[in-house]
Amino acid sequence: MPRMLALAKEFPGAILVFATLREALTSGEKRLLRPVANRGRKHWKAERPHNPVLILTGNELFADDDPREVWKHLDGVYASHTRSGGDGRDLVGLSDATQQIYLGMQSRQKSISEKEMARQRRRNLKSSSPLAPGDRAQAHSKRNQDEGFKVSFPVAMRQIPWG
Fold first, then answer.
1. 48: which strand partners?
2. Residue 127, by phi and psi: left (phi above 0), alpha (psi -120 to 50) or beta?
């Protein structure tokens, strides 16, 4: 795995392709590829991931057609990935689909939005410390004494009595 990550670091923006002639990955291969795929999903430039990981198995390698067309004939997890989110030739989207199929990961977009929501929750927890009614008066008087006391908008609405 360190060599995979070193390769990714040397070629930012490159799509890393991992291929096997078998129809599925072993659990050991999945365990090795997940950290590389997660790192590669991080934002790089212009909404592109740092190093998308594309996984190709015998299902895709031996096919005469687009991978999404091949997946239409396979059952299970493949069925939900037969439609592309945009251009069917988009390798970043194909990489995301193969990570979902073969590594059992959630979509890159869902992963990004969950991380952003968690980041927002952490920010809100840091900036808002709920005050008891008696403490509100102390905070208000401290605000008057200390010019440097500043509270962000949503917190200010809850913590400082208005009039």
1. 45
2. alpha
Q: What is the pTM of this model?
A: 0.66
pLDDT surpassing 90 at residue 16:
yes
Retrieve residue 10's tokens.
Answer: 């040397």
Q: State the first-to-last Cα distance of the chain, in angstroms, to the nearest integer.
A: 61
- Residue 144's CB is within 10 A of a number of other CB atoms, namely 9
Closest CA to 39 of 27, 52, 28: 52
pLDDT surpasses 70 at 35: yes
Q: Which pLDDT does position 116 carry in this prediction? A: 83
Q: Taking Cα atoms as reference points, which of 80, 97, 100 lies closest to residue 89?
A: 97
Q: What is the 3-state secondary structure (H, E, C) of the chain?
A: CHHHHHHHHHCCCCCEEEECCCCCCCHHHHHHHHHHHHHHCCEEECCEECCCEEEECHHHHCCCCCHHHHHCCCCHHHHHHCCCCCCCCCHHHHHHHHHHHHHCCCCHHHHHHHHHHHHHHHHHHHHCCCCCHHHHHHHHHHHHHCCCCCCCHHHHHHHCCCC
